[in-house]
Automatic annotation (TrEMBL), chain A:
Primary residence: cytoplasm
Species per Swiss-Prot/TrEMBL record: Sporolactobacillus kofuensis
Assembly and binders: Tetramer of two alpha and two beta subunits.
Binding-site list for Mg(2+): E257
Molecular functions per Gene Ontology: phenylalanine-tRNA ligase activity
Source taxon at top rank: Bacteria
Keywords, sorted A to Z: Aminoacyl-tRNA synthetase, ATP-binding, Cytoplasm, Ligase, Magnesium, Metal-binding, Nucleotide-binding, Protein biosynthesis
EC number annotated for this UniProt entry: 6.1.1.20
Protein name per Swiss-Prot or TrEMBL: Phenylalanine--tRNA ligase alpha subunit
Entry similarity comment: Belongs to the class-II aminoacyl-tRNA synthetase family. Phe-tRNA synthetase alpha subunit type 1 subfamily.
Cofactor binding, per record: Binds 2 magnesium ions per tetramer.
From TrEMBL, chain B:
Main location, first listed in the record: cytoplasm
Gene3D superfamilies per UniProt: 3.30.56.10, Bira Bifunctional Protein, Domain 2, Ferrodoxin-fold anticodon-binding domain, Nucleic acid-binding proteins, Phenylalanyl-trna Synthetase, Chain B, domain 3
Residue ranges constituting the TRNA-binding domain according to the UniProt record: 40-152
InterPro entries: aa-tRNA-synth_II/BPL/LPL, B3/B4_tRNA-bd, DNA-bd_dom_put_sf, Fdx_antiC-bd, Fdx_antiC-bd_sf, NA-bd_OB-fold, Phe-tRNA-ligase_IIc_bsu, Phe-tRNA-ligase_IIc_bsu_bact
Protein name as it appears in the record: Phenylalanine--tRNA ligase beta subunit
Species classification: Bacteria, Bacillati, Bacillota, Bacilli, Bacillales
UniProt similarity note: Belongs to the phenylalanyl-tRNA synthetase beta subunit family. Type 1 subfamily.
One Pfam family per UniProt: B5
Reactions catalysed: tRNA(Phe) + L-phenylalanine + ATP = L-phenylalanyl-tRNA(Phe) + AMP + diphosphate + H(+)
Keyword list, A-Z: Aminoacyl-tRNA synthetase, ATP-binding, Cytoplasm, Ligase, Magnesium, Metal-binding, Nucleotide-binding, Protein biosynthesis, RNA-binding, tRNA-binding
Gene Ontology terms for molecular function: phenylalanine-tRNA ligase activity
Domain FDX-ACB: 709-802
């Protein structure tokens, strides 16, 4: 009797579980069949009337039925929960091809990038970065660089003077003179001097009254022209490609003796001749030389003990050559469409 | 300097060296050959013809019909030149020839008369009209030339002209002999220069001329030669053609010879018409302050006491080394010539030439320097040529003041120094050999060498100059590349440089693009938008190129306005820029401005673009302020920063804050004044400028490590109703002061004005975090602090808790 009842209860519960269509209905099934006042509890209460043999059998059966129902309910619960999650996930679907929320970033200026690249290269070679004033004394801008007041290479017309003795520096070389002075005659001095310089020019495609310059200076015992050639080779390969070659041509600057111009083999044509190198296979990149003994002497270094080399380059020129930029004014017009093109430079 | 390849061949054997190869070698040795000009380029079929007969054209009053012998045939040519005549030998463009401008000559008819070619003027053969000799019409050969042959070699139109860029250190190549010495050294071939031979009469020059020099230090040497019996004629054709090649227009024999010798020897010469000289006394002195001289170009020149003047003892006759005077000019009737060969101080000549804007071939040579030991020889050369080509009788001797020659300059040095500086491995023989190629004399004494440098190389004075001479002639391409062997050194960015790079990166990561603008601006703009306004006038340049770049900026902002305006004009209204650069602050009593590095930024337009999620939003004051706050956070100085409302010229009076660092104003952030926006045609625009140097000079922020919290913090919100005039920063400060030390952070999360709040009041809600690193705080402890804060705000601002 009780056995049949239990089995029937089990069937009833299974049916309810199967037809429960939500977690709430399932919970009701749980309460109804497995609750403290549920039918299985009722069955167990009536066990007193059973014989001693039947009691454990029915007791065992009642527990089994209870477990089976509980298991079934758990299975169904998992099923319903999963189904619910699926529905939720389905409802949260988005068009992953819609644009995301970007944060807009700005651009680094091409000249800044070139200066930074040169700085980093030379820091790696043991050169520090020195900066100096843009309004300079005539002495540091000219005289200390072996350009006495009446030197023919010096033309007042080419400089923005503020007073007879003050001007907008025309090159970053005065920083070299300051740096040498600071070292009080004791080497080594190994510096790179980047910065703005000014010349009394009308702005056009190839002239700018303001432009950038990077100068390098290395003074020590036994610094040789061959060392200059070595350092400039490293520079040329770094900036213009590993297969670049350099050549030095004699030139003239008042602050170096000997003075040279450095050409690199053309990066466009590899030296065969093209429009970039005007058919020569070589491109003029910078001026350099061995520091003139007068410059060393004036800044407190003994030229019989120390030698040195110096070089100077124009970041605008490097950028114009490297990217085929046609007009130097682009660097100072700051058109965002120009700047953006060099974000990776 | 224009160098004729054919002329140069007279001094140095150039066989086997093409003009192109020569140009390369000269360039590689240090004097840049800018280009090579081939004057005969494109000419074809030009032969020497002989005009056999020359009859007037039957139907024309200016054309002539000529029978011209071309060697192999005789042809009829109609010619319109006024100077054509029978017996002339002339260049003929034959049938099918090409003349200048790629014009082809064809058989044609002139008023019914057949013409088989053209008799040519030099300009028709490509010679610059400004250089062509004096006569009108066709070119007529003056010497024995073979009829029927190619005319170009006889016109030097088969030449190549090398254009040398002469820098300060290569003045020794401003003449053919100097170039010859240079090329001789480069090619290692001997140089041949004929010494001039002068035939003198018995009459003494000294009878006709005496010289006094007042400023002997500025006139180290002055000499005069005298010639009589001169006949003014055209100079010989060969000389004319060489002058043309050098870019000098032939005038007459006397003028041409003095120009020719200058080109050949580098020595400027001057010829006076002795009969007009007015005395026999050449007196060289400085001009008086009110003195005047009319120069050869017909211009009256006002002189001053810095101009060297040649006088006849009374009045000026020439501006020394620059230009002769009109009063003693050689003319067609000149019979006697006083020839000046002198040395003048380069600086004096330079100053006079520059002041009068009167740069001549003579002055440019004096300015750069001349061969001190070639002066008298140049005068002799001129005398020789004048005898030959102007019938001159040269009087006996030279009248001179000063030393005719100077000793050669001696340099003594260890020969190994050259290897030490170049990093080369040359032998003593290679080094002395290279110097000898330059015609320097060298004697050795063990480790030491003594070098004697000819006066023509006045640029070589110190051992380093010899290093250069050896290096450039030997060739820098033979020097290996090495890496320095000296002290190894370590290098890094300075803390300031490192921080500046970080600021750049930060600005770019929050959307601002870097720009570089000009430091020079208009006088009016120079002081506007300065962080710190000064009474002193802006620093100005003495001779600006234009008003636009006349004064030094004290702020970057005006330049950024221009950049934004540029973009607006090109339909780019949404832009954000920053610049880090120097500003120049005038210092009272000191012409030198103080230089400070500033950071400035500018933003305008959309903060977010309209997109699929919603409408666009515009940038505003808080966009700009957020940028500077982000910066101060990154630099770990936010605790030392305060903002104060401020009124600044050109800025919105209600939307501008001064930025204070430890109580000192270091910048500002705010909206442009609507009037400024209207004037510039700008949209709503926000700017900031910060004297960043003062922040960054503190170096990198020290990092103060704290152990991670082991106890929970307690967060309480508080909403206070205050008068609208109460500044958020003031409330913030009072909350912080009263919450210390357990109150760790205060964040304003809501500002409300409107319903349920009185018209003149606002509600501000803050989120407060309390924390003790040693223990968990109890509610009672937190409540006590919280109440203290509330009552302090009530006391100081009349704040009430919002219900
Ligand atoms: Zn190329």
């Amino acid at each position: 009797m009780l056995k049949e009842k239990l089995l029937e209860l089990r069937e009833q519960a299974f049916e309810h579980i199967s037809s429960a269509d939500g977690l709430k209905a399932l919970q009701e099934v749980h309460v109804r069949f497995l609750g403290k006042k549920g039918p299985i509890t009722e069955v167990l209460k009536g066990m007193g009337k059973l014989s001693a043999e039947e009691r454990p059998v029915i007791g065992q059966l009642a527990n089994d039925v209870r477990k089976m129902i509980a298991t079934k309910i758990e299975e169904k619960r998992t099923y319903l929960e999963n189904k619910l999650l699926e529905t939720k996930l389905e409802s949260e679907k988005v068009d992953v091809t819609l644009p995301g929320r970007k944060s807009e970033t700005g651009n680094h200026h091409l000249l800044g990038s070139i200066i930074r690249e040169v700085e980093d290269l030379f820091i790696g070679l043991g050169f520090s970065i020195e900066e100096g004033p843009e309004v300079e004394q005539d002495y540091y801008n000219f005289e200390a660089l072996n350009l006495p007041k009446d030197h023919p290479a010096r033309d007042m017309q080419d400089s923005f003077y503020i007073t007879d003795d003050l001007l907008m520096r025309t090159h970053t070389s005065p920083v070299q003179a300051h740096t040498l002075e600071k070292h009080k005659g004791v080497g080594p001095v190994k510096v790179i001097c980047p910065g703005k310089v000014y010349r009394r020019d009308n702005d056009d495609a190839t002239h700018s009254h303001q432009f950038m310059q990077i100068e390098g200076l290395y003074v020590d015992h036994n610094v040789r022209l061959s060392d200059l050639k070595g350092i400039l080779t490293v520079f040329a390969k770094h900036m213009f490609g590993a297969d670049r070659e350099i050549r030095l041509r004699p030139s003239f600057f008042p602050f170096t003796e000997p003075s040279v111009e450095m050409d690199i083999s053309c990066f466009r044509c590899g030296g065969h001749g093209c429009s970039v190198c005007k058919g020569t296979g070589w491109i003029e990149i910078l001026g350099a030389g061995m520091v003139h003994p007068n410059v060393l002497r004036m800044s407190g270094f003994d030229p019989s003990e120390y030698t040195g080399f110096a070089f100077g380059m124009g970041p605008e020129r490097i950028a114009m050559l490297k990217y085929g930029i046609e007009d130097i004014r682009n660097f100072y017009t700051d058109d965002i469409r120009f700047l953006k093109q060099f974000n990776r430079a | 300097m224009l160098v004729s390849y054919k002329w140069l061949k007279e001094y140095v054997d150039l066989s086997g060296v093409t003009p192109e190869q020569l140009a390369d070698k000269i360039t590689n040795a240090g004097i840049e050959v800018e280009h090579i000009n081939y004057p005969g380029e494109g000419l074809k079929g030009i032969v020497i013809g002989e005009v056999l007969t020359c009859e007037p054209h039957p139907d024309s009053d200016h054309l002539h019909v000529c029978q011209v012998n071309l060697g192999s045939e005789t042809v009829q040519i109609v010619c319109g030149a006024p100077n054509v005549a029978a017996g002339q030998k002339v260049p003929v463009a034959t049938n099918g020839a090409r003349i200048a401008g790629n014009v082809k000559i064809r058989r044609s008819k002139f008023r019914g008369v057949e013409s088989n070619g053209m008799l040519c003027a030099l300009s028709e053969l490509g010679v610059d009209k400004a250089l062509a000799p004096y006569e009108d019409g066709i070119y007529v050969f003056d010497d024995e030339v073979p009829v029927g042959e190619d005319a170009l070699p006889y016109l030097n139109l088969d030449d190549a002209i090398l254009d040398l860029d002469i820098l300060v250190n290569s003045a020794h190549c401003m003449n053919m002999i100097g170039v010859a010495y240079e090329v001789s050294a480069i090619l290692d071939r001997p140089v041949q220069i004929k010494e001039p031979v002068v035939e003198e009469t018995d009459q003494e020059t000294a009878e006709k001329v005496r010289i006094t020099v007042d400023a002997e230090d500025k006139v180290p040497y002055y000499s005069a030669r005298m010639m009589t019996g001169i006949k003014i004629l055209p100079s010989p054709r060969w000389m004319q053609l060489r002058l043309i090649a050098a870019g000098v227009r032939p005038i007459s024999n006397v003028v041409d010879i003095s120009n020719y010798v200058m080109l050949e020897y580098g020595q400027p010469l001057h010829t006076f018409d002795y009969d007009k000289f007015g005395s026999n006394h050449v007196s060289v002195r400085f001009a008086g302050d009110n003195e005047e001289l009319t120069t050869l170009d017909g211009k009256k020149r006002a002189l001053n006491a810095h101009d060297l003047l040649i006088t006849n003892g009374h009045k000026g006759v020439a501006l020394a080394g620059v230009m002769g005077g009109q009063n003693t000019e050689v003319s067609a009737s000149t019979e006697s010539v006083l020839l000046e060969a002198a040395v003048f101080d380069p600086m004096t000549i330079r100053k006079t030439a520059a002041r009068l804007s009167l740069r001549s071939d003579a002055s440019s040579r004096y300015e750069k320097g001349i061969d001190r030991n070639r002066v008298a020889r140049a005068a002799d050369r001129a005398a020789e040529l004048l005898t030959k080509f102007a019938h001159a009788r040269v009087l006996k001797g030279i009248v001179e003041k000063g030393k005719r020659t100077v000793p050669e300059h001696k340099i003594t040095m260890p020969w190994q120094k050259i290897n030490q500086v170049l990093g080369s491995d040359l032998t003593c023989e290679q080094i002395t050999g290279t110097l000898k190629r330059l015609n320097f004399s060298v004697t050795g004494e063990g480790e030491i060498m003594h070098v004697s440098v000819p006066a023509r190389r006045f640029d070589v004075t110190i051992p380093e100059d010899l290093v250069e001479e050896v290096g450039r002639i030997f060739g820098y391409n033979h020097i290996l590349a090495t890496l320095p062997e000296g002290t190894s050194s370590h290098a890094a960015l300075t803390p300031y440089q490192k921080m500046r790079r970080r600021v750049e990166l930060l600005m770019e990561s929050i959307g601002l693009s870097q720009v570089y603008t000009y430091s020079l601006t208009t006088k009016e703009n120079a002081s506007s938008y300065a962080v710190e306004t000064r009474d002193t006038a802006p620093t100005q340049v003495i001779w600006p190129m234009s008003e636009e770049h006349g004064a030094l900026r004290q702020s970057i902002v005006p330049q950024l306005l221009n950049v934004v305006q540029y973009h607006l004009n090109r339909q780019m209204p949404n832009v954000k820029f920053y610049e880090i650069g120097k500003v120049f602050l005038p210092v009272s009593g000191d012409p030198r401005p103080a230089e400070e590095e500033h950071l400035a930024g500018i933003i305008t337009g959309k903060r977010t673009e309209r997109n699929w999620e919603g409408e666009s939003t515009d940038v505003d004051f808080f966009s700009a302020k957020g940028m500077v706050e982000t910066l101060f956070d990154a630099l770990a100085v936010s605790d030392q920063i305060d903002y104060q409302p401020s009124k600044r010229e050109g800025m919105h009076p209600g939307q501008t804050a001064d930025i204070l660092f430890n109580g000192r104003v270091i910048g500002y952030v705010g909206a442009l004044h609507p009037k400024v926006q209207a004037n510039h045609g700008l949209n709503e625009t926000y700017v900031f400028e910060i004297a960043i140097e003062s922040l960054l000079r503190h170096g990198e922020p020290a990092i103060d490590y704290h152990i991670l919290p082991r106890f929970p913090s307690t967060t309480r919100d508080i909403a206070l109703v205050v008068k609208r005039t109460v500044a958020a920063s003031d409330l913030n400060r009072v909350i912080k002061e009263n919450g210390s030390p357990l109150l760790k952070s205060v964040r304003l999360f809501d500002v409300y004005e409107g319903d349920h709040v009185a018209d003149d009041e606002k509600s501000m809600a803050f989120s407060l975090v309390y924390f003790d690193p040693e223990r968990t705080l109890t509610d009672d402890e937190v409540n006590a602090i919280h109440e203290k804060i509330v009552s302090a705000c009530a006391e100081q601002f009349g704040a009430e808790l919002r219900g």
